[in-house]
Design a protein that fits this description.
Strand order of the largest sheet: 1-2-3
Largest sheet: 3 strands, mixed
Number of domains: 1
Number of strands: 3
Family: Belongs to the BolA/IbaG family.
Organism: Sphingomonas naasensis
Distance between the termini: 29 Å
Strand content: 15-25%
Protein name: BolA family transcriptional regulator
Number of helices: 3
Helix content: 25-40%
Order of helices and strands: HEEHHE
CATH topology: GMP Synthetase, Chain A, domain 3
Structural class: alpha+beta
InterPro entries: BolA (IPR002634), BolA-like_sf (IPR036065)
Length: 94
């Protein structure tokens, strides 16, 4: 797993979600440029994110539980490096 103190945050997010959820599709989008100068912008250019993810782990799982699974995989990053995270999570075939 990538050390959270090094590397591009998008790569770290992707590695964490891949390890935790084995996604069949994954897109990590940096939305920080839309929030430059706003509350939560820490100046790094890596504060606001969207994750689009498809995983078998989401089959039969509620939307809230899907978000909890993602939040658990990214917990330490959400506590410090990620200000905002939009999630679009689906199971295959949805």
């Amino acid at each position: 797993m990538t050390d959270p103190a090094s590397g591009r945050l998008a790569d770290i997010i992707a590695a964490r979600l891949t390890a935790a959820l084995a996604p069949t599709q994954l897109e990590v989008i940096n939305d920080s440029h839309h929030h430059s100068g706003h509350l939560g912008d820490d100046g790094t250019g890596e504060s606001h994110w969207t994750v689009v993810i498809e995983s078998e782990a989401f089959t039969g799982v509620s939307r809230v539980q899907r978000q909890r699974l993602i939040n658990t995989a990214l917990a330490d990053l959400l506590a410090g490096r990620i200000h905002a995270l939009a999630i679009r999570a689906r199971a295959p075939g949805e």
